[in-house]
C-alpha cells in the first residue's frame, strides 16, 4: 500500500458544524480534522489545509475553481476533500471535468462530528483508505461505498448517496 | 468500485469490550457491529457473523483454525475480520499461510466503541474500504494504514502498527 | 429527604433540540427526559408530562398560562419545569406571581442533550435535588446554582444565570 | 440559596476510572472533576482537592481517617466527597461517627465519566445541589436521591442505593 503523503482540503460542510450555545444556532468555527485524526490514532502522513468553511449550498463557482486549483497545484498526488453533502456530487463533476490526473476522494458527514454519534469518523476512515488504494480519478466516498465522481447523486429524501447523474 | 457483498467475521477484541457496572470490570457481551454500521449510515451489503467474543491474548490455535475455515467456506470473496490488536498480526500470518485466495482485511480498535472517543469507527470505515478496493490477499488495516498480512507488527510500547515481522 | 413523587413538565428548549440530518437544521421531536433519567440511573419517583416542545423565544402568554395551570392542578407538590434558557426567568416571574404554594424548579441546558457534551444531565440532577430539598417557592436551577424565581436573569453575552431583575 | 464556597474532596472511584489502551485495563490517572465542572458550566465557587485516587474496595481505615481529617480541617462548611460506590456507605458511617458539624455529601458513579454515557454528571449536579440546600449532616447522593449517612446501603445485585444499615 502507498505510504505517500495525503493532502486533505477542508471546505466545511456538516463535518465541521458546531452549536453556538449563546445564539442556539449552528455555525462554523474551526475544522475538527486534527481532533478526528487524533481520535482515529491515524498514522498516515496527512497534510490538512482549510480552503473555506461553508455550507455546501452556498458554494459558488469561484469556490469550486479554488478547489480545482488547489488540487492541481499541491505537491501530493492523493487528495481528500471534505465537503457538505448537498452539492458534493456537483463539485465532483467539476473536478472530473478539470482532468487533474490525481486520486481525489470527496467525503462528508450527515451528522456533525461535534454532536456525538456522527458518521464523520467512519467516512474519514473510508476516504483516507480509498484514496490510498485507488488509481487516479475523482471519487465520492459516502455510506461505506465509493462512487465514480461523474456518476453519483445524493437522494434528498433519504440522505443516501447512490449511482446516478 | 465493487458492490459485492462483504462478510464481517467478529472475534471480539477491544472493539467490543464493555463496562460491567456491577463488578467494575471490562467484559464482552454482544458485538457492537450492527450499531456501528447504523451510526456510519453504511449502505454496503455487509453480512455479520460472530465467531467468538474473546480477548485476542486468549485466542488459541483452534480459534485461528475456525477463522481460517470460515474465511474459506463462506460465499463472499471479500472479508473483514474484527480482532483484538494484541495478536492480530499472528492471525494475519496464519491466514496468509492458509492461502485462501480472497481479500481478507483484519482490523480492531485501541479504545472500546462503547467508551465514546473510540478509534473503532474510523478503523471499520478503513477496513470496509480497503476490502472493496484491494486484490486478493491478507491485510491489516490500522491507524489509517494498510499492511501486508505477513509483514506487520504492533509496537507494544506505543500501540501503533508498523511494517515488520 | 422527601421521597414524594416529582412532576416534571417538559416545555422544550435546548434540552430537547435535535439535529435534522436531511435538512441540516435543529428541530424538536420527542423529549429526551426518559433517556436522561435512564442514563442517570435515577430512582426518584418522577412523572414526566410534555406540555409543549418549543423554543422559549416563541413562548406566548397562553403557553405560560398552561404551565401555571398544570403546576396548580397536578397532584404533586414538587415540580421541575424544563424550559429554554432565553425566557426562563420570565416564566419564573409568572409562576411567582401565580402564588401556587408548591416547590417549583425551572431548569434547562445550553447544549442539547443529543449533542454529546451537554450540561443538561448536570442541570437535571441539580433541579431534581433542589426540588426535593427546598420549601415551597419558585426557583431557577442553572450553572449549579439556585436562584429565587423573581430575582434571576440570564446574561445574554455569557449565557450565565445570575441574580438580578 | 447559599453562595458559600464548596470543598470537593476527590478519592477516586468509578467516577475517575480511565481505559489504558496499551494494556487493555482500567486505571486511575487524574481526576475529571475540572472537566466535568466545565461541561456543566458550573458557576458555584468550588475548590477541588484530590486526596487519593483509588478503588473504594481498597480504601483503608487510614484513608478514611484522612477524609475525616480533611473534612474537619478545611475552611469550607459544605463539602462534597467523590467516592467509589462499593464502600461509600461505610465511609459515610465513619463520617457520621466523627461528628464534624458540617454539611457533607458523598457521591460517585456507576459508569466512568470518560466512557460516554455516565451517570457521573447527574450525580455531581445532584451532590452539589444537596450540599447547598441541606443543614449540617452526612449524606449520600445517588440515583437522584439523598440518604442520611448512617442509614444507606448499596444493593450489590442491582447497583442501586437504598435506605438500610
Give a description of the structure:
4 copies of one chain form a homotetramer. With 165 residues, chain A is of the alpha/beta class. Helix content of chain A is 27%, strand content 30%. The first copy, chain A, is built from 4 helices and 10 strands. Chain A has a 6-stranded mixed β-sheet with strand order 4-1-5-6-7-8, with helices on both faces. Chain A is globular and about 45 Å long. Chain A starts with 5 loop residues before the first strand and ends with a strand. The model of chain A has no long low-confidence stretch (mean pLDDT 96).
From the structure above, extract its key features.
10 strands; alpha/beta; 165 residues; 30% strand; six-stranded mixed β-sheet; 4 helices; homotetramer; two-stranded antiparallel sheet
TL;DR?
Chain A has helices at 33-39, 61-73, 88-98, 120-133, and strands spanning 6-12, 17-20, 25-28, 46-54, 78-82, 103-107, 137-142, 145-148, 152-154, 161-163. Chain A is an alpha/beta fold and 165 residues long.
Task: Chart the SSEs and their pairings.
4 copies of one chain form a homotetramer.
Chain A: E1 6-12, E2 17-20, E3 25-28, H1 33-39, E4 46-54, H2 61-73, E5 78-82, H3 88-98, E6 103-107, H4 120-133, E7 137-142, E8 145-148, E9 152-154, E10 161-163
Parallel strand pairs in A: 1-4, 1-5, 5-6, 6-7
Antiparallel strand pairs in A: 2-3, 7-8, 9-10
The poorly predicted ranges of chain A are: none
Described by its quaternary structure, the protein is homotetramer
How far is the N terminus from the C terminus of chain A?
A: 32 Å
User: What characterizes the major β-sheet of chain A?
Assistant: 6 strands, mixed
Order of helices and strands of chain A: EEEHEHEHEHEEEE
Shape of chain A: globular
**Helix segment tally of chain A:** 4
Q: What structural category do the secondary elements of chain A indicate? A: alpha/beta
- Protein chains sharing the most extensive interface: A-B, 39 and 39 residues
Strand order of the largest sheet of chain A: 4-1-5-6-7-8
**Number of DSSP-assigned strands of chain A:** 10
Mean pLDDT of chain A: 96
Strand content bin of chain A: 25-35%
Share of helical residues of chain A: 25-40%
- Using only C-alpha atoms, the radius of gyration of chain A works out to 15 Å
Amino acid at each position: 500500500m502507498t505510504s505517500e503523503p495525503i493532502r486533505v482540503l477542508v471546505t466545511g460542510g456538516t463535518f465541521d458544524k458546531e452549536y453556538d450555545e449563546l445564539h442556539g444556532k449552528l455555525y462554523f468555527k474551526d475544522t475538527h480534522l486534527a481532533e478526528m485524526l487524533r481520535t482515529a490514532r491515524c498514522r498516515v502522513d496527512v497534510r490538512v489545509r482549510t480552503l473555506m468553511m461553508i455550507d455546501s449550498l452556498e458554494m459558488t463557482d469561484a469556490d469550486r475553481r479554488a478547489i480545482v486549483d488547489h488540487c492541481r497545484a499541491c505537491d501530493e498526488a492523493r487528495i481528500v476533500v471534505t465537503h457538505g453533502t448537498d452539492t458534493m456530487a456537483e463539485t465532483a463533476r467539476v473536478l472530473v471535468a478539470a482532468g487533474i490526473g490525481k486520486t481525489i476522494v470527496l467525503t462528508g458527514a450527515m451528522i456533525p462530528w461535534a454532536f456525538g454519534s456522527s458518521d464523520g469518523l467512519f467516512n474519514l476512515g473510508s476516504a483516507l483508505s480509498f484514496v490510498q488504494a485507488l488509481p487516479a480519478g475523482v471519487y465520492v466516498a459516502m455510506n461505506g461505498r465509493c462512487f465514480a465522481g461523474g456518476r453519483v447523486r445524493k437522494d434528498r429524501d433519504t440522505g443516501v448517496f447512490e449511482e446516478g447523474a
